[in-house]
Design a protein that fits this description.
This protein is α+β, with helices and mostly antiparallel strands and about 625 residues long. The protein has 4 domains: about 270 residues, 3-Layer(bba) Sandwich (FAD/NAD(P)-binding domain); about 140 residues, Elongation Factor Tu (Ef-tu), domain 3 (Beta Barrel), CATH 2.40.30.260; about 90 residues, Arc Repressor Mutant, subunit A; about 60 residues, GidA associated domain, C-terminal subdomain (DNA polymerase, domain 1, Orthogonal Bundle), CATH 1.10.150.570. The chain is built from 19 helices and 22 strands. Strands 1, 2, 6, 7, 8, 9 and 20 form a 7-stranded mixed sheet that branches. Strands 14-15-16-17-13-18 form a 6-stranded antiparallel sheet, with helices on one face. The N and C termini lie far apart (about 50 Å). The chain binds flavin-adenine dinucleotide. The site of flavin-adenine dinucleotide (FAD) has 36 residues, from helix 1, strand 2, strand 12 and helix 10. Flavin-adenine dinucleotide binds next to helix 1, strand 2, strand 12 and helix 10.
Length: about 625
């Protein structure tokens, strides 16, 4: 490990979690030097909770990170042990990929990759203080007293800022179990004038797989062909492992309900808010009192370990209650807990304090990414880390920031949500957060983002040529699907409305509303054996045909949306001079400082009338320039 701390780095990244590694690599790929200051250089991008990447909407972000040259997709492709596609019975906008990870192999893959990059210097220490020169950041002082000078700093501290673990009545100062928390850095942020809030999250106990009665659980296999994440990976053979489904019983409910008062979530010991969509088992029994049972997924933590992650059983109850409650779950009657579940509270920075570039408004050259911005999830963190890395380089080079809008990427939706709304609970992505879902699919991440990857030099040149070939091949397939016809009689009992004696085009087949694309796909090759075998090409062509009408309509909506986004508002715009604004709107504008008229309109409490008034003033402002 190189510890040439006298060096001035282009960017110092604090924290080697999912946000930090993407940030450091983006900086490095753009030809700048990064110092990655983290507590354990051999455990980069460690999964704090569930050993899986992807899931609904999160998988879209992984594809976007991949299209922008990020590492998450490649890392999980290389270390995944079960690959599944979700939501296939619904439209392609919500098709998602979820991959079970070998948790230790994943962190090793990432640590090796990042540590080996010539532009990244690993600094194994705890960042304690941010150094500023006037209003601009200029480096970091570690808790051991080392000074790391840099032209920009990205803070990606996850759940470590003033982290406090709760297990029943027990409290432990830690960033994760058995890892130290970062208290000094919280103080430094406060002294720079940042507002910090408290959020909480939690994790289930881990189980010894040898003590589980698998016969009593429902087996869930991975999918074939394997839905890899990254466009760039050489496909590997995977012996996929199974996951299992089980459920809690009436006795689980009884034990947990009898101990509500001993959970720090209900006893008043924890006052901060946790992720609404990922509640603890005690919160589930409390909130849904009529529900007798909850599903639990038993997920292996990797190939080299027997540990099992009981997804759905997050808890902060005392250990003895965890022990007796887990043994009432079907198949877990003799289960042994290897590590207890716990809740953790940590400091975060309410995201009105950052700009859409993720640079803080208060200190120039200082960026925040990941959990510190109030989000939850590895994928959300990775998306922000990548954007912060790119924007830190653009900042150094005095170039305009790179901001994705809501019609271009889930990353854009997330950052826009963060910077226009108040985060009072951990934020996670859902497909329902994106109004232009049909345009933001997993399959077209490269169509949407490769232009930017090229502009900022994020991926190798050769990859663009490969993608052009894929696009050409897709066009060829679309034309064949329009020309080739199939006898309705050959479609078996698909139940489409044509007479058995008719022949219809494959295009027409794909447009039938009562069958899914996946039901239609096998018949395409049957009707036209000359179609390519490559699943990706066939699927891209099929999606294009099926949804071209809707996609065209959405494109027109996006054009309208963009016109509002193009109405830029100067950062220092003087809202006090705008007469006719409601008091609430003026306060919100001052608080969030929207970057465009479109963004101003999305702030809670702002009415169309306020936007009309603001629009007139902006026109005048422009005229005066
Ligand atoms: C107990 C627990 C349960 C969770 N449950 C869920 C869940 O159910 N669902 C979900 O979506 N997410 C969950 N999460 C959150 C998920 O782990 C994070 O969203 C994600 O890891 C955030 O990535 P990050 O890069 O922001 O931070 P992290 O992955 O937490 O990484 C932070 C890194 O920064 C380093 N670091 C911190 N401070 C300093 C410092 N001062 N100096 C040097 N290094 C520092 C740490 O060592 C670590 O490597 C959970 C987290 C925990 C701890």
């Amino acid at each position: 490990m190189n510890k040439s701390l006298e060096n001035i780095y282009d960017v110092a990244v604090i924290g080697g979690g999912h946000a930090g590694v993407e940030a450091a690599l983006a900086v490095a790929r753009m030809g700048k030097t990064a110092a990655l200051i983290t507590m354990d250089a051999n455990r980069l991008a460690l999964m704090s909770c569930n050993p899986a990447i992807g899931g609904i909407a999160k998988s879209h972000v992984v594809k976007e990170v991949d299209a922008l040259g990020g590492l998450m997709g490649r890392a999980i492709d290389a270390t995944g042990i079960q690959f599944r596609r979700l939501n296939l019975s619904r439209g392609p906008a919500v098709w998602s990929t979820r991959v079970q990870a070998d948790r230790i192999a994943y962190t090793k893959y990432v640590s090796d990759l990042v540590g080996a990059h010539k532009n990244v210097t690993m600094v194994e220490d705890v960042a304690g203080e941010l150094l500023a020169d006037g209003t601009a950041v200029c480096g970091v002082r570690t808790e051991q007293g080392e000074i790391i000078r840099s032209r920009a700093v990205i803070v990606t501290t996850g759940t470590f800022l003033a982290g406090l673990i709760h297990i029943g009545e027990k409290k432990i100062k830690a960033g994760r179990m058995d890892e130290q928390a970062a208290y000094e850095l919280s103080k430094s942020l406060l002294s720079l004038g940042f507002e910090l809030g408290r959020l909480k999250t939690g994790t289930p106990p881990r189980l010894d797989g040898d003590t589980v009665n698998w016969e009593k659980c429902e087996k869930q296999q991975g999918h074939e062909p394997i839905p890899f994440f990254s466009y760039s990976n050489g496909r590997r053979k995977v012996d996929q492992v199974a996951c299992y489904l089980t459920k809690t019983t009436a006795e689980t409910k009884r034990i947990i309900s009898a101990n509500f008062g001993r959970s720090p979530i209900f006893s008043g010991q924890i006052t901060s808010t946790g992720p609404r969509y990922c509640p603890s088992i005690e919160a589930k029994f409390h909130r849904f009192a009529d529900k007798e049972s909850h599903q639990i997924f038993l997920e292996p933590e990797g190939n080299g370990t027997n540990e099992i992650y009981p997804n759905g059983f997050s808890t902060a109850l005392p250990e003895e209650v965890q022990n007796s409650a887990i043994r009432t779950v079907v198949g877990l009657e003799h289960a042994k807990i290897t590590r207890p579940g716990y809740a953790i509270e940590y400091d975060y920075s309410p995201a009105y304090q950052i700009k859409p570039s993720l640079e803080t408004r208060r200190v120039r050259g200082l960026f925040f990414a990941g959990q510190i911005n109030g989000t939850s999830g590895y994928e959300e963190a990775a998306g922000q880390g990548l954007m912060a890395g790119i924007n830190a380089v653009l900042y150094i080079e005095h170039e305009p920031p790179f901001v994705l809008d809501r019609s271009e990427a889930y990353i854009g939706v997330m950052i826009d949500d963060l910077t226009t709304r108040s985060t009072t609970e951990p934020y996670r992505l859902f497909t329902s957060r994106a109004e232009y879902r049909l345009a933001l699919r997993e399959d077209n991440a490269r169509d949407r983002l490769f232009g930017y990857a090229k502009k900022y030099g994020l991926i190798p040149e050769g990859d663009f040529a490969e993608f052009e070939k894929l696009k050409k091949e897709t066009e060829g397939v679309i034309n064949r699907l329009r020309r080739t016809r199939i006898k309705v009689a050959d479609l078996g009992d698909l139940g489409i409305r044509f007479k058995k004696t008719e022949r219809i085009s494959l295009e027409n087949l794909l447009k039938q509303p009562n069958i899914t694309i996946n039901e239609a796909l096998p018949f395409l090759k049957q009707a036209d054996p000359a179609l390519p075998d490559r699943h990706e090409v066939l699927e891209r062509a099929a999606i294009f045909i099926r949804y071209s009408g809707y996609i065209g309509k959405q494109k027109r909506e996006i054009e309208k949306f963009r016109r509002m986004e193009e109405e830029r508002i100067p950062f220092d715009f003087d809202y006090e001079t705008v007469s006719g604004l409601k008091v609430e709107a003026r306060e919100k504008f001052l608080h969030f400082r929207p970057a465009s008229l479109g963004q101003a309109g999305r702030i809670e409490g702002v009415s169309p009338g306020d936007i009309a008034v603001l629009s007139v003033y902006l026109m005048r402002h422009k005229g005066a320039d």
